[in-house]
Description:
heterodimer; A: mainly beta; five-stranded antiparallel β-sheet; about 60% strand; B: mainly beta; four-stranded antiparallel β-sheet
Amino acid sequence: SQQGEEDPQALSIQEGENATMNCSYKTSINNLQWYRQNSGRGLVHLILIRSNEREKHSGRLRVTLDTSKKSSSLLITASRAADTASYFCATDAYNTDKLIFGTGTRLQVFP
Amino acid sequence: GAGVSQTPSNKVTEKGKYVELRCDPISGHTALYWYRQSLGQGPEFLIYFQGTGAADDSGLPNDRFFAVRPEGSVSTLKIQRTERGDSAVYLCASSYPPGELFFGEGSRLTVL
Lengths: 111, 112
């Protein structure tokens, strides 16, 4: 089963634009993570935000977390063609280390 | 090695055969995860090891699937009597301590 659900399922933008992806989850969590996956490759960790944090930045990435709404968003600013990939949120249910992934957003950035 | 290594990268087998997929985690990582990913879907949790023991195997779909990690390092995912529906990419990840996961490139299994 999948704990998280991302929307939109697919997103197409031009280089230089910002991309926003949203993730909703079902149960209380310790932390939420975002991963990126290039086609045919393994997943790469982008950023982790703890349940007591509301916002976190890493380079062009900005993640927000709203535990009351059980949702998170990932913003990629000034997107590049190289950002083209699938993006997944992942959560660990409270008191477990099991990490459950969402359904993903497929981002296409056109040069 | 520097990263998580999975072998084979590709495996084609016939329905009903037995398959083993191997994962060599990052040295020192105590936690090891197996996921299965079908085309266009997110990774589906199968099993998670902390050290040698399976801390959570609730994602294994049925008793044809089994995984071991006898020395707390390398893990093997074993699939008996394979079915066409088992075709997917099997991903392994490791971490220390549990938190950020480091993934291998996956083993693509095709059951004919």
